[in-house]
Specification:
2 domains
């Protein structure tokens, strides 16, 4: 890799570190190519990505970035999982780490907040953006449904009483 390629990699990593909602660092020693492709596919489906980069270039890219605290985690065979959604990458990484013992979560960063492995697990347990939106919409819609039910209930009761009276008269 020549100097121009290294500069390009540092620039790409810098953009990743600035624009991502969460960055998770993990060791992937011992994973097969198929297992790594499986991880990449899962991450892509969740709206994130996995990147393997040289630790030295990653440390250079981290200088002056909000998540510079993860530079200490860049040792050994490290993979970077990241996504704009602050929860997506952490969820995928945690699920994958449970299924594959060779994939070890070291920590990460959520903006300026450094995360240890327990912090990554806590972020993964949070609801995703879509789940939060759905719960808010449900909370907003529930009172309207209750009001519609309450308004319609007396009319339904009256209709039920009238049909009962008609049935008695017919009998």
């Amino acid at each position: 890799m020549d100097r121009a390629q290294k500069e390009r990699v540092v620039e790409e990593l810098g953009q990743i570190f600035e624009s991502s909602g969460v960055v998770v660092v993990a060791h992937y020693a011992g994973l097969t190519v198929a297992e790594m492709q499986d991880l990449r596919g899962r991450m892509r489906a969740a709206g994130g990505s996995v990147r393997v980069a040289k630790n030295k270039l990653a440390r250079i890219a981290l200088e002056g970035k909000p998540c510079a605290s993860i530079a200490d985690l860049m040792t050994g065979m490290t993979a970077l999982a990241f996504s704009e959604d602050p929860v997506a990458a952490a969820k995928v990484v945690e699920d994958y780490a449970k299924a594959n013992a060779k994939f070890v979560v070291l920590g990460g960063a959520m903006g300026e907040t450094p995360l240890d492995p327990a912090g990554v697990k806590a972020v993964a347990a949070m609801p995703s953006r879509e789940e939060l939106i759905a719960s808010i919409v449900g909370a907003i819609g529930a009172p309207a449904a209750n009001i519609a039910g309450a308004v319609g209930a007396p009319a339904a009761n009256i209709a039920g009483i009238l049909t009962t009276l008609e049935e008695r008269e017919a009998a």
